[in-house]
Amino acid sequence: MPLLPFSACLLEASVKRPARVRALFALAVIAVSVFIAVTVPVRLGLDLRGGTQIVLETRSTETLDADAEATDRTLEVLRGRIDALGVAEPGIVRSGDNRIIVELPGLQDPRQAAEVLGRTAQLSVHPVLGPGAQSDKELPEGERVLADEEGEALHLGKASLTGQDVKGAEALFDQQGGAGWHVTVDFRDSKGWAGLTGEAACHPAGDPQRRVAIVLDNKIISSPQVDPSVACGAGITGGSTQITGSFTNEEAKELALLVHGGALPVPVETVEQRTVGPTLGAEAIEASAWAAVVGTALTAVFIIVVYRLMGVLATLALLCYGLISYAGLAALGATLTLPGLAGFVLAIGMAVDANVLVFERAREEYGARNRPSSRSALTAGFKGAFSAIADSNVTTLIAAALLFVLASGPVKGFGVTLGIGVIASMISALVITRVLAEFAVARRWVHRRPRTTGLASIGRVRTYLTRRDPQLMRRPRRWLAVSAVVLVVAGAGIVVRGLNFGVEFTGGRLIEYSTSDAVDPDRAREALADAGFPQAVVQSSGENRLTVRTEELTNAQAVEVADAVAGVGGGAEKVRDELIGPSLGDELRRNALIALGLALGAQLLYLAFRFRWMFGAGAVSALAHDVVILTGIFAWLGKPIDGVFLAALLTVIGYSVNDSVVVFDRIRELWRKDGKAPLAQVTNRAILQTVPRTVNTGIGVIFILAALAVLGGDSLTDFALALLIGMLVGTYSSVLTASPLAVELDARSGGGRGGGRGGRGRGRGRGSAGRTKTAAAEDRPDRAGAATRAR
């Protein structure tokens, strides 16, 4: 259906102003997203398009601190060096006070970049001995022939001054003299400058020897003539001089930066280096795209089977979610990395969760006596599910924000993508799905056939729970004992096997090769030992793929490693190369622990603020339980604990909190209606009423993660495995660890006294006036999952 007639139908069907506003907002968001998606391309990270990323760290010297100002000056010098490499669309930015991130797309040999970028900037000032010929080969030591700004060759004498003799440089505009922009240079060695310019002043005007050449990185950046007013032998006194010329504002400032930067050089050290071959990047994009298509298709089929017409509309909203997420990435100029691409696919499951919450709540409301139509049930479903959706998404945004602030590289990109995905999923579920659903249920043929909506039946899971009516919270300590046993077994892996920290957390070098022939890792290990690398760890990472992990190597040593692998593999092509300095590894490991601690603390504070302290304590304890179990399982399996694992771990935290929030939100609602009911009884009812949502959401997410694990390639297998394990453990712990623990904490603190406080202490005992409830109604959900109410 064309967009304009469709919008007209929406507006015509919406008789209330809020519905019109939602429809207009949805159309505006979709229209803007389409425009951005068509006109603004998303920038791909180096792990998707191939290339080299180098992180440099400036070091302080005896005369200069490596602060933000010194790093900025170093960055300007490095920018010129990068331009000399001839790399298309390079990127160079400062990170923090003393780090510079350099991205070189398409550059597969990091040795060339390291040689160019690693040299310390050196400024020198030379006398000009006359014109020079490029063919001059035999020159006295210290003399050289360089081209000036106009391309004319000059014969330069030995350096009279160096960058250490320059105090500073500043670009100024001469308003009175009319000389325009010029650069003022201050020298510490005023006598040296006076002697150099005094000797040049002894030559006639126009003679090349009357010039003084300022050289930076073996290139003349300025070669001014000494002014005719300067006397021979006297020179320019005072230690200050002006370089004049036809400078523009930008040219004068750039020259001042170069002179000042060369005058105050700070050494740089490579603390991180990543190289990804274009083949690996192309394979990752293709694998992730297939995973997205297959996972989304399976999820769409599942929700259509379960929710029928509402499932079809939710699928359309999911497509809009993908469009909005892509447009958000493009609009923010975010870089899409491989973990970020996985986060983009993963957030589809979160969008499904919001729709499932609404539809399950509408099913409950439809079965209640006061919700006789699909339209009213749907409205009540959106209203009832809003608080759970908002709270669960806020907790995920907290995890995404921590990733963005504390992580680096691709993992930071994952945090950005996850955050955009959460916001897009809320717009998709709460606005677009609602607009489409309200338009559909307002149709007469839908009203006559309510079962086509998927909301008129309570579903098999709820029917089974209603019939069996299990009392899960009758003995909460049993569930806590089971959790403790699982926790001890998984945690033993950390003690017995230890953690296999990746290069990111330990420092060192990891290189992945694609070999022509299949190679036994033992043979490659022997070859590397013979080459002088007995400590190298060799693993098979796929068909004809080898991963070599060693301590920190120089680029020359990396060539020796490549030769050894090629010798046993019939040839080897490097597809990935990661170098992490020990200082950065310590910092990343420290930041990972900080991120984990802050995540747990932030969840505790938020849940204590939104619910009660015992719920917050129960949820955070369940989170710690999930973290230990997931880490322990990876320890037993010998899987690496790296930045991608950290991204998966914090995502698991978000998912676990989502499930806990849904249960706690229902407890809060039920307790507000009857503040005198025991918490164990209310918790049992809340769990039974929310299990259908948990099951359906879990199945939808499993489809996504299974597609990532099977189709996402080797680089995403561990990521998907961690999320699958974490989702299963998190679902269990949120229901059968967090809830029983909250019940136990309430009992120890004098539970049974009521106090149905929700949010910030509101709603104590609210909603019980004017209603009577039978004991059976208290203990047993009705066919719609809500307590039976007698008027």
TrEMBL record:
Residues 269-437, 562-746 form the Protein export membrane protein SecD/SecF C-terminal domain. Residues 747-791 are annotated as: Disordered. Part of the Sec protein translocase complex. Interacts with the SecYEG preprotein conducting channel. SecDF uses the proton motive force (PMF) to complete protein translocation after the ATP-dependent function of SecA. Forms a complex with SecF. Part of the essential Sec protein translocation apparatus which comprises SecA, SecYEG and auxiliary proteins SecDF. Other proteins may also be involved. Forms a complex with SecD. Part of the essential Sec protein translocation apparatus which comprises SecA, SecYEG and auxiliary proteins SecDF. Other proteins may also be involved. The chain crosses the membrane at residues 21-42, 287-307, 314-334, 340-359, 380-406, 418-441, 479-499, 592-609, 616-637, 643-664, 695-713, 719-743. It is a multi-pass membrane protein. PANTHER family: PROTEIN TRANSLOCASE SUBUNIT SECD (PTHR30081:SF1), PROTEIN-EXPORT MEMBRANE PROTEIN SEC (PTHR30081). Its main location: membrane. GO terms for cellular component: plasma membrane. It is found in: Cell membrane. Keywords: Cell membrane, Membrane, Protein transport, Translocation, Transmembrane, Transmembrane helix, Transport. One of its GO terms (molecular function) is protein-transporting ATPase activity. The keyword Transport applies. It comes from the Bacteria. HAMAP family: SecD_B, SecF_B. The keyword Cell membrane applies. The gene is secD. One of its GO terms (biological process) is protein targeting. This is Multifunctional fusion protein. Residues 72-128 form the Protein translocase subunit SecDF P1 domain. Belongs to the SecD/SecF family. SecD subfamily.
